[in-house]
């Protein structure tokens, strides 16, 4: 028991840091995928041929 108490004496932010990093990376990947989707499906303006 005493060993477990000593082990969890690290600040909670250090315990949560790896999870926060993974969440931030996932959010950026989703934003990138969404941005690529928006660019790919955006309507292009009609081009008129001028001779």
From TrEMBL:
<keyword id="KW-0472">Membrane</keyword>
<feature type="transmembrane region" description="Helical">
    <location>
        <begin position="12"/>
        <end position="37"/>
    </location>
</feature>
<keyword id="KW-1133">Transmembrane helix</keyword>
<protein>
    <recommendedName>
        <fullName>Transmembrane protein</fullName>
    </recommendedName>
</protein>
<keyword id="KW-0812">Transmembrane</keyword>
């Amino acid at each position: 028991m005493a060993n477990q108490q000593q082990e969890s004496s690290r600040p909670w932010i250090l315990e949560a840091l790896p999870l926060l990093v993974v969440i931030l990376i996932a959010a950026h990947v989703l934003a990138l995928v969404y941005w690529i989707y928006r660019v790919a499906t955006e309507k292009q303006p009609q081009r008129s041929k001028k001779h």
